[in-house]
Amino acid sequence: MVRKAFLETFENKYSIILSAVSAGRVIGFLNGTAVLDEAELLNIAVMEEYRGMGAGGALIGEFLHILSDKNVGTVYLEVRESNAEAISLYKKYGFEQNGMRRNYYRHPVENAVLMMKKIDLAGD
Fold first, then answer.
1. What pLDDT score was predicted for residue 123?
2. What residues act catalytically?
3. What region holds the N-acetyltransferase domain (predicted)?
């Protein structure tokens, strides 16, 4: 079931999947979707030993560039409230909090911070 869902992600015409590579090794990835003029950043992960070295920012920057090329005007994401490192990174790239989902996550139960960014289609 997980394998099937994973493969379907690659076949979905709305998916945007990016990887960060160092010395021939995948050290991070980003998975998002873009439909019409809206997008969602679904997942981003960087191997722990490579965090803080710019890979996450490079992935987000490339994602935003692709969205701009596709004339996507707004991108959304959600993140665990306790994930201060990710929230800080998203804010660095212009995301702003626009809501909260109470008790959204399980194991442990935690709020989801909702964030969004308007993309300047004239040259973000």
1. 54
2. 78, 90
3. 1-120
